[in-house]
Amino acid sequence: MLKFPIYFDNHATTPVDPRVLDVMLPYFREQFGNAASRNHQYGWEAEEAVELARKQVADLIGATAKEIVFTSGATESDNLAIRGAALMYREKGDHIITAVTEHKAVIDTCKRLEKEGFRVTYLPVGKDGLVDLDQLRAAVTDKTTLITIMTANNEIGVLQPIAEIGAIAKERGMLFHTDAVQAVGKVPFDVMAANVHMASISAHKMYGPKGVGALYVRRRNPRVLLTPIIEGGGHERGMRSGTLNVPGIAGFGKAAELCRLEMAADAAHARGLRDRLSQALHRHLDHLSINGSMEHRLPGSLNISFAYVEGESLLMGINDVAVSSGSACTSASLEPSYVLKALGAGDEMAHSSIRFGLGRFNTEEEVDYVADKLVGVVRKLREMSPLYEMVKDGVDLSTMQWQAH
Amino acid sequence: MAYSDKVVDHFNHPRNVGSLPKEDATVGTGLVGAPECGDVMKLQVRVNPTTGVIDEAKFKTFGCGSAIASSSLATEWLKGKTVDEALAIKNTDIVAELALPPVKVHCSVLAEDAIKAAIADFKRKQAAG
Lengths: 405, 129
Fold this sequence. Notes:
The structure holds 2 protein chains of 2 kinds. Helix content of chain A is 39%, strand content 13%. Chain A has 12 helices and 13 strands. In chain A, the strands form 3 sheets. In chain A, strands 2-8-7-6-5-3-4 form a 7-stranded mixed β-sheet, with helices on both faces. Chain A has a 4-stranded antiparallel β-sheet with strand order 9-10-13-12. In chain A, helix 7 (246-284) crosses helix 11. The relative contact order of chain A is 0.15. In chain B, strands 1-2-3 form a 3-stranded antiparallel β-sheet. In chain B, a hairpin with a 6-residue loop joins strand 2 (39-47) and strand 3. The longest helix of chain B has 24 residues, at 105-128. At the A-B interface, helix 8, helix 10 and helix 12 of A face strand 1, strand 2, strand 3, helix 2 and helix 5 of B.
């Protein structure tokens, strides 16, 4: 039995796993204490829940519990990591390296730092969405203190070579932060193996609740210090003040534990669905292009451009399916996706793109339904598309004189 | 974004999708927009040379639902109008009829441009005789 709307937007957020919710509920009811209350049972119970979750999150990424700083989510984690490290190590240098396809939480933090006098290099990416390691090495100066490159991209799902980037950072004595939001819980991620010094994680991308995230901050080789961005009671080793979100953190911990124990099965499931969807679409439609590397990619991620059809009209045609598009019309900024533009395939490919995120709770039946529906809608819209007609008539669209507006 | 019922209706049941022979002397073709901007409209009219009345209008649109609805509506309105009456159609009429939100006003502007371009093409052909 299909339940509508079908949810294929697991990059945006994931539903809370019922097993996670079960763990959270007592901390809203009987065990509502403040984890910072040191002198009564309510506080002790809350602290115990937080410390268990800290261990569970640490175990998922190969860290120790003390290296986990809980935050309100990955946007805060990115801000704290980049801003906190830039300010803390300002005397050593004022240069940061990142990439053009990073999440806005990273890009905008870097832009703010530029206004405050820091210098930032935004590395380009190749057609496959990956940064070039030689370009990264060439960008390093003796004033570079921080590299921040995401592990997996939120729009196209490509996996950056973080172990190689970590090795470069280590060799040149720089800090390496990675926004690992999309990758953690989906693919193996180990802070020691990849030489990561800081990593941003979000609970709601891994079947946990919204409003809670973490920043991994390495404690040895090297011990990373950060200037806090939120001041107050000195919680979280002084790096992040504020009363802890105990139910959220407890759920985050359980979500991390489930991801660790079930990762292989989850990944195989998501990859199977993703490939089934891709194959069905390719069997019935021409002029499709997959955005970003297929080889270095999250298991449940698929970003496809349906040439000659505009993304928002596609979404309107499949209005019982929840997905996202890189089309300008679907973005708050009315600009096509900057990530897809960075791949260099032309803005029209961004306008025609759909991002599918398959996850733990999706089924083959859903994939078959969505593929069928999408094939019909794409065909209908192409019959309506002047561009498709011109291409069928042998017109080379790139030689046309268009009037941009 | 929530679409008005009229936009949804035009999107699900577009009127007058198709093409007319663009070499025909009685056919005017307007092609406006650009793929990199996310919308391209092709709008065609066939004008009865004796009466000056548009007896057929067709469109094809690459664009969002509002762009498709704007051009679909334009073809409906064009049929039965004289060339001069057609030129009097304003984008604001389309905005009002489809209840387009401010971010979609450019779709109606594009439809007005397409009408004007199609009529101009027809007039050019007539003048060239």
